[in-house]
Design a protein that fits this description.
The chain has about 220 residues and is an alpha+beta fold. Helix content is about 15%, strand content about 35%.
């Protein structure tokens, strides 16, 4: 799964990568579930826009069932298209989530060792996401990050990883160019771990209140 990630690249770099300015940004090294994050999605005119969404997707129909359902931070790419919880967002509300890297926890001898994973080239990543509009009195809409089985190079750390889309696939994922939902599923299966590097980090990342570049340092 993907339970924490970081976005510390300057706004100019995000604009260069995604073709839209995110405005003023504060570097964030420990983005956690339920917190707001920036995403790239299409507006009603079909152009890209920056949207602030809470991490934890909640469809409107789920929120109306008296707390039976809770926000979901991850959606499995293998089944999201068919599950009622994600099906509408899969078809109509896909987004990109800019990230410099993400964290995973490796189970070792009864303890959990955190790792930081990022692009080997230091590039900003575009994670595949799904989003829903605000529910009730919520200030923001909500989103979830798609995950897939980890590539062989990363599977020793954790069995799953976020779906990291190649820049050439961003337009299709957002719906800017026609591709068909079947093409989307094939595209998601092609995400590779060969372009990533992983390094052990210290336990401070375990607590959402900690946020700073020191989280990327070794244990």
């Amino acid at each position: 799964m993907c339970g924490r990630f970081a976005l510390y690249s300057p706004a100019t770099e995000i604009q260069r990568a995604f073709g839209i300015s995110p405005g003023e940004l504060q570097p964030r090294y420990n983005i956690a579930p339920s917190q707001p994050l920036i995403t790239v999605k299409l507006n009603e005119r079909g152009g890209r826009e920056i949207a602030h969404l809470d991490w934890g997707l909640l469809p409107a129909w789920a929120a109306s069932r008296q707390g039976t359902y809770r926000p979901v931070i991850n959606a499995r790419a293998e089944s999201a298209a068919d599950k009622p919880y994600f099906r509408a967002a899969w078809r109509q509300r896909r987004c990109l989530i800019p990230a410099d890297g993400w964290y995973e926890w490796q189970q070792t001898d009864g303890a959990k060792q955190p790792w930081y994973l990022c692009s080997a080239g230091g590039n900003v990543l575009g994670l595949a996401g799904l989003w829903e509009p605000p529910v009730g009195s919520a200030a923001h809409g909500s989103c979830a990050i798609l995950t897939r089985p980890a590539s062989p190079e990363l599977a020793h750390i954790h069995g799953r990883m976020p779906v990291v889309l190649a820049p050439g696939h961003w337009s299709m994922w957002l719906g800017e160019v026609p591709g068909g939902l079947g093409s989307l599923e094939a595209m998601l299966e092609g995400s590779s771990g060969r372009e990533f590097i992983a390094r052990r980090v210290g336990p401070r990342v375990n607590h959402p209140r900690h946020d700073g570049p020191e989280l990327l340092e070794g244990p």
